[in-house]
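Lecture 7, part B: from sequences to assemblies.

Below are the input chains for today's worked example.
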Amino acid sequence: MRFEHPATFNPIDQLKVIGHPTSRIEGPLKTTGTAPYAYERHDVVADQAYGYVVGAAIGKGRIAAIDLDAAKAAPGVLAIVTAENAGKLGKGARNAAPLLGGPEIAHYHQAVAVVVAGTFEQARAAAQLVRIDYVKGDGKFDLAAERDHVSVPDPKIGGPADTAIGDFATAFAAAPVQLDASYTTPDQGHAMMEPHASIAAWDGDRLTVWTSNQMIAWGAEDMAKTLGIPKENVRLVSPYIGGGFGGKLFLRADVLLAALGARAAGRPVKVALQRPLMFNNTTHRPATIQRIRIGAERDGRITAIGHESWSGNVSEGEPDMAVSQTRLLYAGANRMTATRLAALDLPEGNAMRAPGEASGMMALEIAIDELADKLDIDPVALRIANDTQVDPEHPQRRFSQRQLVRCLNEGAARFGWNKRNAKPGQVRDGRWLVGMGVAAAFRNNLVTKSAARVRLDQQGRVTVETDMTDIGTGSYTIIAQTAAEMMGLPLDKVVVRLGDSDFPVSCGSGGQWGGNNSTAGVYAACTKLREAITQKLGFNSEEAVFADGAVRSGNRSVPLAQAAGAGDLVAEDAIEYGDLAKTYQQSTFGAHFVEVGVDADTAEIRVRRMLAVCAAGRILNPKTARSQVIGAMTMGVGAALMEDLAVDKRHGLFVNHDLAGYEVPVHADIPHQDMIFLDETDPISSPMKAKGVAELGICGVAAAVANAVHNATAVRVRDYPITLDKLLAGMPV
Amino acid sequence: MRSFSYERATSPGDAAAAAAATAHAKFVAGGTNLLDLMKLEIETPAHLIDVNDLALDRIEETPDGGLRIGALVRNTDLAADRRVRRDYGVLARALLAGASGQLRNKATTAGNLLQRTRCPYFYDTNLPCNKRKPGSGCAAIGGFSRQHAVVGASDACIATHPSDMAVAMRALDAVVETVRPDGTTRNIPIAELHRLPGDSPEIETVLQPGELITAVMLPKPVGGTQLYRKVRDRASYAFALVSVAAIVQPDGSGRVALGGVAHKPWRVETAEAELPNGAKAVSARLFADAKPTRDNAYKLPLAERTLAAVLREARV
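Predicted structure of the full complex, as structure tokens:
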């Protein structure tokens, strides 16, 4: 199905199932521990052996020699795979650094060997006996030091390295009020609960991998490419995923090493990345240095806005597109952005929840707060004054929907923003200095092809199959809701099967595109199934109504179970998009309001209240969507106050590489969270009239916290995370 | 993890004797720290002596009006004990500030005292660490040292002791009771239990090989207002950046011990004479010989401010 024109009334608009706050259909499996996650698939293949990964002990350099004798002689060892004996390996299109290093070492904890043994304990013990001599190379690990030695990248996504509209330099110089400030964001880790984990089994030259991966087709394709085997010979299965956040978008070392280990051992092999490896072995959100310049009239109207960003990556790695939102969020005739990339030898930087906007909004939305201070204008009012209903770079392009102003106004009213004291450092509650902060939320809505297959059986059940994944987001549930709505069935008559490369290729889970696109693909397949049913029954498809488990036309009504007839009725289709994403700018909007307390003695920061108001198209399931947003708000608090992969610039690694050292919020850090969705349907985005929502929730949160800290203390921190050491000097004596 | 042999001890004396008689033996109780370290081969005992069956899990009143806390009393139970809550509030508060509920259910009194540093360089076997591998150097010096010691450290090691409980015990002048492999017992004032790193940071206590902690004794209650304030980046389940255990008497005299600043709970008795003069005066004495790194210099003003807050609270 091609989606070329704005959606009109369709079966989804009935909202009998869609739009209802529905609990996860797979929830009972998860709460009872019976949802089968990759590492626990003891049932799928017999005789599984265990692989333990050896990570490189240096940040840059090469392996001089490997001595495997002691490890091979250890009890239970079946095989050891290194780059020396792995055979020729290719590299996936989406991997920068090779997943199996050696002799060249690209980054710390790059996998250099997998030791396969009969038990996990044997593999782990033997892995410690692998002796590797390294020759340390001169690595570059310091982004700030490389700032003046950068290249102009050619980003694959997120726009060109340089953009310019009007005459930024002249307009900025002429502006009566100017802000010129620099901000930094640190490297951040996904730190998901479930580690990267895979079981690989060979059947002749065919490989099956049970794994934890957000993008099945990408993974299968890159696995085949890395191993140099036909894509048809690779099957990836990933029905349940214990968190991804972008860290599982790509083929990673666990999959490759399980496959290589299984081939070497002649047995199925399971590999889970050890927790201490996860931060340096896998990808992370790269650190940024950002400079923002804004020129404004005294009434607050922005006349010039410029955003530059520097980040680093390994060879072939991409820059963080922190400037993306600045091209679209606020009006202003004169604009520029610039993205620069430093060659660093730290682990590979890549996507993490809302790549680009997450880092960019951390800086931009402090800058707007600072500008409001300079103008002596309320920060909510300043944002409203600079709203735009068109793409500021291409004024003929309208936003498909843009309710930023309503989000801000509604949020301000609900949060009690009028009680905020505009003068910082004035409000005391016992030992706490109290402040409020606001930030806009912005994240683009991405549309991409997504396919599904639906099968009607003789019991009147519809089974949906698509390689879409559920990374904790609620995909199972919204897909079931979509099929139920389309076919006129109750939810319990829909079976959803996800995450298998044998199924039609979906959009996968990433970039907050999963919900809208995967359900639109199911919509397309169900539309085809409806046609097949009406055709089979001789109904006029225009008049047929699918409701209450039956299809009705005129005074004829046939139960769906009967419509299937002797065999199953199967339909497969994909949603494919025309030019609507070009003719309209599709984005999602919100406003974050935060109240913090800062301990007047110790400068400890504790969030007291949070509110998010989001406008993100039709909300397919308010319950799971809310969970996504409050989870993202929590992650935003982490980004604001604690998450920081500490770089050792001598040894070239993230030092705090476990969950004791890399702090993320615990329950005690998260106060009552309110979040509301504005009513919105966006017929430009898809037949579902929905948009992404999961990443919108993080964009701007950290800046709202930062602005609240400033309001509480009068101390402006421009380097994340905002920890107490950065506030102490400015605290009351 | 290396292979190891395992036995269950039936008496403290036998446990100590077995530990001395077996090469590379270690005691295991709650295992909340040791097992993690064994999996990473930071600890590589050849033999584990499980002391959980020893009858050391009781809290008893002593003839002099104090408490004798068995080495195996779990942190949760100790914090909940009515007598501890009533007479040793600083200890109950410190315990509840530490770790998580699940860990406190497993962790024991003696094990808490003997837990090892959480310096991230200690935890990465690829990197130099004099505590893990004597003579290899200290990667924390010149590295990421935001959490590290500001006082009492050495050129060999700037690690901190991570315990909250031990800081309160230090303020209470607790005494550690041990049994040695020859069956003799001794009492070690907690002030002397932990060592500063010096040239041998791998040796963390004065315990001799095989020596087993059997109890911790608290002197009779000293009264006063007893507070424990732990400062950290997140609200729970994090090690202290700085912590303050304070016992303040109505006349303004008292005791303070600090956590998160040194290789051992940090108490300087002569500094306590300055308590009536305020936190600044006390801090000046506590940190007279401080040598912070660039990353952790904030701990000095933070400690002073935290101490000031605690003293203010104590006097309300």
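Note for the exam: DSSP finds eleven helices and eleven strands in chain B. Keep this in mind when comparing with the next example.
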